[in-house]
Amino acid sequence: MEKIVVIFGPTAVGKTKFAVKLANYFDGEIISADSRQVYRNLDIGTGKDLADYQIGEKAIPYHLIDVANLEEEYDLFRFISDFNIAVKNIQNKGKIPFLVGGTSMFLHSIFKNYQLVKTDFLQTKILELQKTSDEELRNRLLEKRTNLHNQTDLLNRERIIKAILIAESDSGQIVEPIELKKISICLLPEREVIHSRIKSRLKFRLENGMIKEVEDLLKSGISHEKLNFLGLEYRFISKYLKGEISYNDMFQKLDKAIREFAKKQITWIRKFQKEGIDFTLLEEPNFEHAVEIIENGLKN
Fold it and tell me: Domain 3-114+176-299 - what CATH class?
């Protein structure tokens, strides 16, 4: 089975720089698992830090960054589709894909091999199936799946509908990640360390162009409502620019909101553990230890 290295953890722990260093060592390429870095013109606020992909004279290729306009919706279905394309492109070069992120649902979809049906097809089909009796649903599923192995699919209405949706979807309406062996490392420092890094990073970004980035987005026609939807930095800087909060309030509220976001990411990490997802926890980005973990994973 083909392999992928996954580097993940909460915000501000140095995932990208660490993953790029490892990708350089193993001749790999980066796939971003960040739901906001997919958008063009969201640079400082999403922490793209594209300079981190440069090691000396060498640029480490990256994927799923700057692939969508802000007017577009980038959902989980599209992420998995784009992930599959990126993996194949990297594999065709004889290189190793390194999935790096942040967005817990994106990561979970790869860890657990989600099978998704396209949203517009799903909505239309569900409305139709909800009007159908249980007996008709069972017959419809059995017509599509004459060799149905899991008979429990026939006992629960929701499972019958889900099975029909999958059975009646064509290749353009259904997607699931490429099956890969995951060699996974989670960076998880102590909470106080994460909080300290969040505060320092926020201060640096605010002093180095993040407010101007939001001003430029507004000038380009992006609404305050859209900025609010984008969350965190964009939401609170928008409020500051509208005069709803002071600079100090913005900093304090944003710092707290990012810490809450990190807490949610850590909750997801605990969920991964409870589900038996296999990964190694590292408090700090220990390069030598990570190299050993990846080398062992690549051999087996």
Answer: alpha beta
